[in-house]
User: Fold this.
Amino acid sequence: MRENLDSPERLARLRVENPQLADLIENTRRVTYQIGQLLAEYGRTEDTARKNQILQKLRPLLEKEFEMEIQRQHMEIQMMEKRLEQLKSALKRREENRQRLLQFRLENLLKGPREPFHPPGGPENGMEELPEASSRLEYH
Assistant:
């Protein structure tokens, strides 16, 4: 299941990973709430002068909300680009360590029970901790 972009879980994680983006999301929520309040008041109001006052308050809030969303999208793109670079780097390290990874995998398969393959260093961080292949098996 895909995580809601503004879920409390994501916001808590962003507090650590990117506090600036977390603040921006919270501030955008506040502005969106203010817009909602003004719209509700606009709907309840019969007085034309009061409706115009509300519209005068709404316009700058809508501008602010729009700018905040643009800023948020730029920040999220930067995070995605950073993640993409990390994935490219991890893939490059895996390709460079192909023979060691294959040797490690073969040795694990020959040792015993078939457990799920979890390469050293984990799938996310590019195999920084590759073990030395034992000398008893050679894989070419």
